[in-house]
């Protein structure tokens, strides 16, 4: 066996040992790390927002990754759309908005991507996570004031294609996607317009 083959075999063996049985499925918990402290948005304290999430992925599943390249499924213990909705709601509150389910401006999130994959590598395993969604805001008359796509990604080279590295990648990609939404001036302008009383 040549050096390259030995190296690859060693990586695969280490991955299998670190993740338990590489072919068995496992349920995992994903923690959301809040974004760095943000300044309150002017006027946000008077705006009530309802966060709605629609799963538009082709495969509506809570499987978020696999052990190794083609190993056992890793399934989130919390519904993936719920994870996204909670993250966005948390960041809206941090910026001063009232997040509620009544008499509120609807912020619709359409989940398009939430996944992590390990790729085969020669000296390491590429670890890639991606989260993506569409966000839209309508006023009380149903007119769309805002619609855009947002995404977050995380890539790394890891020695072990196991559970911990899959979790780490997803726990970086989700906040990155949420940050891209929170950093959109057009979002905050649309929420303010939708919440404004109709002109007399």
Describe this structure in words.
There is one protein chain. The protein has 200 residues and is of the alpha/beta class. It has a single domain (3-195), classed as Rossmann fold, CATH 3.40.50.10610. The protein has four helices and eight strands. The chain is elongated, with a radius of gyration of 20 Å. Mean pLDDT is 88; it is low at 1-19.
Keywords:
200 residues, alpha/beta, Rossmann fold, 5-stranded mixed sheet, 3-stranded mixed sheet, 4 helices, 8 strands, 32% strand, disordered N terminus
Topology (elements, then pairings):
Blueprint lengths: L2 H16 L7 E3 L19 E8 L7 E4 L6 E4 L3 H15 L3 E2 L5 E14 L6 E14 L5 E15 L4 H20 L2 H11 L5
Helix pairs in contact: 2-3
The portion of residues forming beta strands comes to 25-35%
CATH topology: Rossmann fold
Uncertain regions: pLDDT < 50 for 5+ in a row? 1-19
Which structural class fits the helix and strand makeup?
alpha/beta
CATH architecture descriptor: 3-Layer(aba) Sandwich
Count of helix runs: 4
The description of the largest β-sheet is: 5 strands, mixed
Question: Roughly how much helix do the residues carry, as a percent range?
Answer: 25-40%
Distance between the termini: 81 Å
Number of strands: 8
Q: Going by CATH, what is the homologous superfamily?
A: ABC-type transport auxiliary lipoprotein component
Q: Any idea what the shape is?
A: elongated
Mean pLDDT: 88
The spatial strand order of the largest sheet comes to 5-2-6-7-8
CATH class identity: Alpha Beta
How would you name the oligomeric state of the polypeptide chains in this document? single chain
Total discrete domains: 1
Order of helices and strands: HEEEEHEEEEHH
Supply Rg.
20 Å
């Amino acid at each position: 066996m040549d050096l390259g083959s030995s190296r690859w075999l060693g990586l695969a063996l280490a991955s299998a040992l670190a993740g338990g049985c590489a072919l068995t499925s496992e349920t995992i918990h994903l923690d959301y790390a809040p974004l760095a402290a943000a300044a309150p948005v002017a006027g946000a304290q008077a705006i009530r927002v309802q966060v709605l999430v629609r799963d538009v992925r082709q495969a509506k599943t809570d499987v978020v990754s696999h052990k190794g390249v083609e190993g056992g499924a890793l399934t989130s213990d919390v519904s993936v759309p719920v994870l996204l909705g909670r993250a966005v709601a948390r960041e809206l509150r941090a910026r001063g908005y009232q997040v509620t389910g009544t008499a509120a401006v609807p912020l619709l999130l359409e989940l398009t991507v939430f996944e992590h994959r390990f790729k085969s590598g020669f000296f390491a395993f590429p670890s890639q996570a991606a989260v993506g969604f569409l966000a839209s805001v309508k006023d009380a008359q149903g007119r769309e004031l805002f619609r855009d796509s947002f995404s977050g990604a995380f890539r790394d080279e890891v020695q072990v294609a196991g559970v911990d590295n899959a979790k780490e990648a997803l726990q970086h990609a989700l906040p990155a996607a949420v940050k891209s939404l929170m950093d959109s001036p057009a979002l905050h302008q649309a929420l303010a317009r939708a919440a404004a009383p109709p002109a007399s």
